[in-house]
Amino acid sequence: MVYLDYAAAAPVLPEVYEAMLPYFTEHWGNPSSIHELGEKAREALEKARAQVADLIGAAPEEIIFTSCGTEANNFALKGIAWAHENRGKHIIISSIEHFSIMHCAKTLERWGFEVTRLPVDRYGMVNPADVEKALRPDTILVSVMHANNEIGTIQPIAEIGRICRERNVLFHTDAVATAGLIPVNVEELNVDLLTLSANTFYGPKGAAALYIRKGVRIQPLLDGGIQERGLRAGTENVPAIVGMGVAAAIAKKEMNSRIQHLQALRDRLIEELPKRIPDTILLGHPHQRLPNNVSVAIEYVEGESMLLFMDMAGIKISSGSACVSRSLKVSHVMLAMGISAATAQGSLVFTLGIHNTEKDVDQVLEVLPPVVQRLREMSPLYHKAKHAQASKQPSGGGQGVQR
């Protein structure tokens, strides 16, 4: 099997798995309990908090553990909205955010808040000048994701953060796609809140965190106990959080070598796919992109059909965000970039991981072209387009031009 869907899920590292095991069987106490078993769990929780904080240049007390990135994003938006609504009810997000931000923003609109959605360019990039223009006296929060998991484009977060700080507006970034993969430092990025998730850096599902800069006022999302400094009620998932901490420490240690490995595989796919499959368009920014992301649109065929054929050949890839892949809807990210719905339907997303090899890339480059050719032969859209192109060719022959 060749697995190239690491943005959807990544295997837990053996060291992470081993570190988690004692907290299922030996040190299974509740970290809120005031006895020895509880203290063991509490110590592990605080060690993990320090490890996660160290990954992003934060202080341990600025890390609040959550169950997933979606919860952390909801906590950031709703928690800030509730805590600061006396100052204003205007929030700014980009038009390519994850649905945990997009849908949360819609909910806030139903509750009386006003949301501005920033446009992006053809690479999916937010212009910091657009953020500055959108700010108003009643703006209380800006949220722009660090990188988009579908197209890989990395946003100018530090510049956007600087603008927000100068205007005294809180700034959140969803860094689920970047934290643990590329260097992320909350001070350098000028962020007040940041979401990260263990699964991105080979930790377990069910563990994530929200960084909240010291002094930022926020309302809890859940009603209940006083866990996580009273900001996130509910007993902590200690085994998963321990795993997140170990994964964070390993990610920081191995980050440079991982990036080097991933970039080499990514660049080969980006270079070879258009050569071997005509009418293939690279999506996202050509340079400011994640080291493990290759996103393309292959014209005249549907992404879902390609996925099925590739799956039968043992190659696991995606056609977009895993969170909505079964809905078969056209990606809102690609529509925001100005890509037509027909072209967006032919999108494929390859997200590489540390276990991938050059041999995996070779297999993709060998299997995908005949799959596309077969599907195009069955596609009326493809034949119509080719017929239209041929009719425009000057009589007397001549060589066609491949893109």
UniProtKB/TrEMBL annotation:
<keyword id="KW-0479">Metal-binding</keyword>
<feature type="binding site">
    <location>
        <position position="235"/>
    </location>
    <ligand>
        <name>pyridoxal 5'-phosphate</name>
    </ligand>
</feature>
<keyword id="KW-0963">Cytoplasm</keyword>
<comment type="function">
    <text>Master enzyme that delivers sulfur to a number of partners involved in Fe-S cluster assembly, tRNA modification or cofactor biosynthesis. Catalyzes the removal of elemental sulfur atoms from cysteine to produce alanine. Functions as a sulfur delivery protein for Fe-S cluster synthesis onto IscU, an Fe-S scaffold assembly protein, as well as other S acceptor proteins.</text>
</comment>
<dbReference type="InterPro" id="IPR015422">
    <property type="entry name" value="PyrdxlP-dep_Trfase_small"/>
</dbReference>
<dbReference type="InterPro" id="IPR015424">
    <property type="entry name" value="PyrdxlP-dep_Trfase"/>
</dbReference>
<keyword id="KW-0411">Iron-sulfur</keyword>
<dbReference type="InterPro" id="IPR017772">
    <property type="entry name" value="Cys_deSase_NifS_bac/arc"/>
</dbReference>
<dbReference type="GO" id="GO:0031071">
    <property type="term" value="F:cysteine desulfurase activity"/>
</dbReference>
<dbReference type="GO" id="GO:0006520">
    <property type="term" value="P:amino acid metabolic process"/>
</dbReference>
<feature type="binding site">
    <location>
        <begin position="69"/>
        <end position="70"/>
    </location>
    <ligand>
        <name>pyridoxal 5'-phosphate</name>
    </ligand>
</feature>
<comment type="similarity">
    <text>Belongs to the class-V pyridoxal-phosphate-dependent aminotransferase family. NifS/IscS subfamily.</text>
</comment>
<dbReference type="InterPro" id="IPR000192">
    <property type="entry name" value="Aminotrans_V_dom"/>
</dbReference>
<feature type="region of interest" description="Disordered">
    <location>
        <begin position="383"/>
        <end position="403"/>
    </location>
</feature>
<keyword id="KW-0408">Iron</keyword>
<comment type="pathway">
    <text>Cofactor biosynthesis; iron-sulfur cluster biosynthesis.</text>
</comment>
<dbReference type="InterPro" id="IPR010240">
    <property type="entry name" value="Cys_deSase_IscS"/>
</dbReference>
<dbReference type="InterPro" id="IPR016454">
    <property type="entry name" value="Cysteine_dSase"/>
</dbReference>
<protein>
    <recommendedName>
        <fullName>Cysteine desulfurase IscS</fullName>
        <ecNumber>2.8.1.7</ecNumber>
    </recommendedName>
</protein>
<keyword id="KW-0663">Pyridoxal phosphate</keyword>
<dbReference type="GO" id="GO:0005737">
    <property type="term" value="C:cytoplasm"/>
</dbReference>
<dbReference type="InterPro" id="IPR015421">
    <property type="entry name" value="PyrdxlP-dep_Trfase_major"/>
</dbReference>
<dbReference type="GO" id="GO:0030170">
    <property type="term" value="F:pyridoxal phosphate binding"/>
</dbReference>
<feature type="domain" description="Aminotransferase class V">
    <location>
        <begin position="2"/>
        <end position="364"/>
    </location>
</feature>
<feature type="binding site">
    <location>
        <position position="149"/>
    </location>
    <ligand>
        <name>pyridoxal 5'-phosphate</name>
    </ligand>
</feature>
<keyword id="KW-0808">Transferase</keyword>
<dbReference type="Pfam" id="PF00266">
    <property type="entry name" value="Aminotran_5"/>
</dbReference>
<keyword id="KW-0001">2Fe-2S</keyword>
<comment type="subunit">
    <text>Homodimer. Forms a heterotetramer with IscU, interacts with other sulfur acceptors.</text>
</comment>
<dbReference type="GO" id="GO:0046872">
    <property type="term" value="F:metal ion binding"/>
</dbReference>
<feature type="binding site" description="via persulfide group">
    <location>
        <position position="323"/>
    </location>
    <ligand>
        <name>[2Fe-2S] cluster</name>
    </ligand>
</feature>
<feature type="active site" description="Cysteine persulfide intermediate">
    <location>
        <position position="323"/>
    </location>
</feature>
<dbReference type="GO" id="GO:0044571">
    <property type="term" value="P:[2Fe-2S] cluster assembly"/>
</dbReference>
<dbReference type="GO" id="GO:0051537">
    <property type="term" value="F:2 iron, 2 sulfur cluster binding"/>
</dbReference>
